[in-house]
Amino acid sequence: MKLTDVINSGRPSLSFEVFPPKSSATYESIESAVEEIACLNPSFMSVTYGAGGGTSEYTTDIAAGIQKRHDIPVLAHLTCVSSTREGVLAQLKKMQEAGIKNVLALRGDIPEGMSPQEDWHYRYASSLINEVRDFGGFCIGGACYPEGHTEAESQQRDIEHLKMKVDAGCQFLTSQMFFDNNIFYNFLYKIKKAGINVPVVAGIMPVTKAAQIKRITALSGTALPPRFKYIVDRFGDNPETMKQAGIAYATEQIVDLYANGVDAVHVYSMNNPSVARIIQSNISEILK
Ligand SMILES: Cc1cc2nc3c(=O)[nH]c(=O)nc-3n(C[C@H](O)[C@H](O)[C@H](O)COP(=O)(O)OP(=O)(O)OC[C@H]3O[C@@H](n4cnc5c(N)ncnc54)[C@H](O)[C@@H]3O)c2cc1C
User: Fold this and answer.
1) pLDDT tens digits for range 61-82
2) Which residues of 214-227 are buried (b: 16+ CB within 10 A; e: fewer)?
3) Which of 76, 121, 254 is nearest to 178 (CA)?
4) Which atom of ligand 1 is nearest to 19's Cα?
5) What's 54's DSSP letter?
6) At what angle do helices 59-69 and 27-38 cross, to 10 degrees?
7) CA angle, corner 249, sides to 244 and 250, nearest 5?
8) Pocket of ligand 1, candidates 78, 161, 162, 266: which has the most ligand atoms within 8 Å of its Cβ, to mutate?
9) Could you tell me how far CA 134 lies from the centroid of its own chain?
10) Which atom of ligand 1 is nearest to the CA of 77?
11) In angstroms, rounded to a whole number, what is the distance separating the alpha carbons of residues 203 and 257?
12) Coil, strand or helix: which one is 46?
């Protein structure tokens, strides 16, 4: 199923993100966590590609496995930075043969210590979007950043680049995590004004460990509202209380998004079935 059909259904949707194993040694344990999340029957599941230094070879296998065993649409991520055209075409062929219909076309982070090279075939995600569109047969998504991408000189320039991605053939967007919904509403207003009319899936990260925060803010520059900081200050030292408070905070964000007409919410569930299960159960009546 094409993800645009899920996102545009006019009903609240809840989806989960998982990441593939970094090596064959962890394949089974990750596959079983993914399986537990799939058993919750979310609106769709996304599978990352080489994120956080992970390998990319299992993305299609994990995504195809979900699709085969469950009647759940999947979104396979694909990055292109420093990739050859042959490599990208081979991945697309593998995805096509596995019956995958939805691709999140991303640039990927520029590896540490490396600067963009003249001979890179894909410099930005928009070149990959062109490639996937020309390849044909996929519903194409792209990433967006309610607070601006860390490399962008301004939010306005970032939105101009986002418009290029949409014009290249991106049919929906998934947002970077945010902890203040007003930032997201403000972003929706700005992109609409810039002529971007594709649906935007809101990305929500339940923070269940205080240690996650440092990494999140360093990588994404996401702002932490004082209300959220107080939660971490008060509960961060105890893993159980932090988990409960972090899930409660994410749930409140999700309910507020639905209440304000944002129907598609994607949870960065980080291969954690218990977090996914609790969030889904917290909003089960809304999802009915
Ligand atoms: C929902 C989501 C899922 C993700 N999944 C993964 C994953 O699975 N694997 C992974 O490795 N990473 C993933 N990432 C991280 C992502 O790869 C990084 O944020 C990366 O740095 C940017 O990717 P992009 O596709 O947004 O790039 P782009 O859209 O190319 O943007 C990158 C930067 O270049 C600028 N730019 C774009 N076009 C131009 C232009 N023509 N001229 C000048 N500047 C331009 C933009 O403003 C931005 O600052 C994900 C991010 C999000 C939000």
Assistant:
1) 999 999 999 989 999 999 999 8
2) eebeeebebeeeee
3) 254
4) 8
5) -
6) 40
7) 100
8) 161
9) 23
10) 8
11) 11
12) strand
pLDDT digits (tens, 9 = 90+) for 153-184: 999 999 999 999 999 999 999 999 999 999 99
- Write out residues with Cβ below 6 Å of ligand 1: 48-51, 77, 79, 106-109, 124-126, 143, 149, 151-152, 158, 161, 164-165, 174, 176, 203
Question: 51 pLDDT exceeds 80?
Answer: no
Determine which residue's CA is closest to atom 47 belonging to ligand 1: 158
Nearest to 103 by CA among 123, 133, 58: 133
Contact assessment for residue 176 and residue 143, using Cβ atoms and an 8 Å cutoff: yes
Angle at 93 between CA 77 and CA 53, to 5 degrees: 35
Q: Which domains does the chain have, with CATH numbers?
A: 3-287 (3.20.20.220)
The DSSP secondary structure of 91-150, one letter per residue, reads HHHHHHHTT--EEEEE--PPPTT----TT-S-SSHHHHHHHHHHH-S-EEEEEE-TT--T
Parallel/antiparallel/unpaired status of strands 200-204 and 264-267: parallel
Sign of the CA dihedral running 162, 163, 168, 172: positive
Three-state DSSP state, 79: strand
Q: Is the confidence at residue 50, as pLDDT, over 90? A: no
Distance 203 CA to ligand 1 centre (A): 15
Q: Which pLDDT score, from 0 to 100, does residue 218 have?
A: 80
Q: Return the closest-CA partner of residue 204 out of 190, 184, 226.
A: 184
In this structure, the chain runs to a length of 288
